[in-house]
Amino acid sequence: MYKTFNDGMIEIITGPMFSGKSEELLKRLRILEYAKLKPLVIKPIFDNRFSENNIVSRSGVKHITHTIKNIEEIYALLEKDTYKAILIDEAHFFNESIVKVADDLANKGYLVIISGLDLNYLRKPFKHMAKLMAIAERVTKLQAICVICQHAASTSFRKIKSNKINLLGDIDEYEARCRKCHIMGEIKKI
């Protein structure tokens, strides 16, 4: 599965909320641990919805993680041990410098696996996620199920009024929707 990791590579796991991105990242983590490839696991300190210091999937699978404010802090963590892979959850919450950092780490021979939303609640790309997908060797785009029509959902619809791009939430604030149902929901908000 990761034959080329010694040469460094970037893999992106993306999709809307409720599509299983964290679950997929944790699956990759289990494979790496089984292969005895020591991973560094991080998430942004901003994401404290389910746990302060764990990545937690909605199915209840979890793993201890380092939480950092700025993506550049990853370099200090890498000095503390010999890691072969770096896994980053909720990458859309980091700033644009994640692109440079991920590229640098892959160039240094690390397997870099990044999970995060590709689109915000307005169906607009998180620019740094789009850039990461462009330079990645592998992109996995997951889908959820639209809560309105039960077709494939590719967007995260915000049910509450707020203009903040980064607004933490779960089922009370967001739901997975297909393109058509997302657009219809936005029209009803107006």
From TrEMBL:
Family statement: Belongs to the thymidine kinase family.
Pfam families linked: TK
Subunit structure, interactors included: Homotetramer.
Positions with a binding annotation for ATP: 15-22, 89-92
The keyword Cytoplasm appears for this protein: yes
Locations listed in the record: Cytoplasm
Active site annotation, chain numbering: 90
InterPro entries for this protein: P-loop_NTPase, Thymidine_kinase, Thymidine_kinase_CS
Keyword Membrane attached: no
Record's keyword terms, sorted: ATP-binding, Cytoplasm, DNA synthesis, Kinase, Metal-binding, Nucleotide-binding, Transferase, Zinc
Protein EC: 2.7.1.21
Residues that bind Zn(2+): 146, 149, 178, 181
Annotated protein name in UniProt: Thymidine kinase
Gene (UniProt): tdk
Predominant subcellular localization, coarse grouping: cytoplasm
Stretches assigned to coiled coil: none
Top-level EC class as recorded in UniProt: transferase
Known catalytic reactions: thymidine + ATP = dTMP + ADP + H(+)
GO molecular function: thymidine kinase activity
